[in-house]
């Protein structure tokens, strides 16, 4: 088993035609036992790449064997968890997001009018699901990334059972909970659909 990392432009679907981003980025795996040995892995050196509509994601060529990261040998895996710090520096940007004035403010969330059909019903049934999230001091861009992930998952769950990616659904739920969204209702829906597919 090994750890592989990649960097993706999560909001790529909302970018204007012809967009490009030239970025310098690196991953640092945090040692959770000793800060003195928290360092950037030699296998995940800093790199520069161009991101665009054809290549919205880049993978690091090398993967790291999990044996090098576990608590007995390095302290990078503790209680089954790995902490990773990502540093991204955008060197050049071609094409911009739509202006903030194109967003609607839906209970503190920047939402496009076309997205209201997905997000508005959530607030009707679960009015406090984003309360902790919107209280955080986060920028519009980060909020847009989270909303994009939420809507992508909702759309995915509307597909026929055989086309739903439950692997992706699980990891999206972990991400949404980590940023502060209360998605217990969505977890139940994913669990029910997965059980239905298995039966």
Automatic annotation (TrEMBL):
It holds the Pfam family MATH_2. This is MATH domain and coiled-coil domain-containing protein. Residues 1-88 form the MATH domain. CDD domains: MATH. Keywords: Coiled coil. InterPro entries: MATH/TRAF_dom, MCC, TRAF-like. SUPFAM superfamilies: TRAF domain-like.
């Amino acid at each position: 088993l090994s750890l592989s990392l990649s960097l993706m432009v999560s909001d790529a679907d909302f970018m204007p035609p012809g967009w490009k981003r030239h970025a310098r980025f690196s991953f640092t795996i945090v040692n959770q036992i000793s800060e003195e040995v928290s360092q950037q892995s030699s296998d995940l050196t800093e790199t520069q790449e161009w991101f665009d509509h054809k290549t919205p994601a880049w993978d690091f060529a090398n993967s790291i064997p999990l044996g090098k990261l576990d608590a007995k040998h390095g302290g990078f895996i503790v209680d089954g968890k790995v902490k990773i710090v990502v540093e991204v520096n955008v060197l050049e940007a071609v094409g911009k997001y739509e202006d903030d004035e194109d967003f609607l403010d839906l209970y503190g969330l920047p939402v496009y009018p076309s997205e209201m059909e997905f997000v508005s019903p959530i607030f009707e049934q679960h009015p406090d699901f984003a309360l902790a999230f919107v209280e955080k001091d986060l920028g519009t861009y980060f909020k847009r990334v989270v909303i994009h992930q939420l809507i992508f998952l909702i759309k995915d769950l509307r597909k026929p059972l055989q086309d739903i990616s439950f692997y992706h659904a699980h990891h999206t739920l972990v991400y949404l909970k980590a940023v502060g969204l209360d998605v217990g209702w969505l977890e139940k829906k994913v669990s029910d659909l997965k059980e239905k597919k298995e039966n």
